[in-house]
Structures are given as structure tokens and as C-alpha cells.
Specification:
By secondary structure, this protein is of the alpha/beta class. It contains 5 helices and 12 strands. It has a single domain, classed as Rossmann fold (3-Layer(aba) Sandwich). Helix 1 crosses helix 5. Bound molecules: glutamine (GLN). Glutamine binds next to helix 4. Keywords: Glutamine amidotransferase, Hydrolase, Lyase, Pyridoxal phosphate, Transferase. One of its GO terms (biological process) is pyridoxal phosphate biosynthetic process.
Length: 196
Amino acid sequence: TSTAGVIAVQGDVSEHASALKAAANAHDETVEVVEIRESGIVPECDVLLLPGGESTTISRLLREEAIAPEIRDHVAAGKPVLATCAGLIVAARDAGDDRVETLDLLDVTVERNAFGRQKDSFEASLDVVGLDEPFPAVFIRAPAIGEVGDAEVLSSIDGRPVAVRDGPVVGTAFHPELTGDHRIHDLAFFDARNNR
Ligand code: GLN
């Protein structure tokens, strides 16, 4: 049994827990999901999930609760992280917004709310590197990825990257937990490819 920590200072958690369990199950593994709201728990986790929400609030709480350095240590030790939507913003190198103190886990810049007002939320069927069939992706006030440094683009929409991998860290601009399809969690955490 591995331990998956879901950062739960703000934002959605339960759908990610379901997707994590389904992905583990598909590999005949079990996973214990713990919610993280304070420091001291991240060091016990094998994998971490940084969910959506409001990136300004999440980054502030991660700093106030002294969780931010623990997440950086987790990645420095080569352990997997999946960062989605606001989580991607917080994990980026630069979010182009002074109110977001990024963790710099992914060598990318992001633009918050990049898909505009008319398209506040939408669904798209995405080709993703490593997946055989398109992934049903839900975008909610989603960021787009701008500059990509030393990271691999896994998926793009209208020429803009929306999923990337940088070593043990996978980031998605969309919400992979909302469609009952656990393949992104699988790709980030349980797939043999993440042991490259
Ligand atoms: N728009 C939010 C932000 O910039 C992210 C939205 C989300 O996580 N669904 O923080």
C-alpha cells in the first residue's frame, strides 16, 4: 500500500481520491489517501496531488502552513506529483502574478484564466502522449502553459500546451478527476513510464 497525499488546503479532493484508488486498483495496488492541511504529513507520502481551486489562496496557505518546502523536498527526492489547474499554476516556475508564489516544480510559465470569458469552462477530447485513446478533459477557468523549458509537452489545445511532464512532476491545465477516467492519474503515478 502506498500513501497518496492530496493537498487539501482549498479546493476539490474527493474526486481525486476516487481516481487515485481506481488507478491503483488497475495495477493491483492499493493506495491510502490522506488529506494535507498542515506540515508534517507530506514526508510520509509516496505521491502527491496538487488539485485545482484558487491558486492565490493555495499558494498563500502552502507558505503559511510551511507545506511548500516539504513539497519541494518531495520532488527533489524524485517522488511523483500530479498538479492540476490551480495546482499547475502553483507548481509552475512563473505564474505571471505577484499574488501567486510558485513552487517552481515544473519548468514552465503559465497564464492564469487564459481561455477567456466566453470559454470559462469547456470540455475537449485531447490527444495525450502515452495514452492510446483521447482523454475527455474538463477545463474550468483554466490556465494555459506559456514558455516550456526543460519539460515535455504531453498535450496541446489550439497550439497551447495544456499538459506537461518535468521529471517526476506532471501538470495539467484541465481537471482529470471530473470525468471518471483515471488515466492521467495512472500516467502520473502508476505507469511504468514515470520511472524513466
Ligand atoms: N482560475 C483559477 C486560478 O487561477 C484556477 C481554476 C481551477 O483550478 N479550476 O487559480
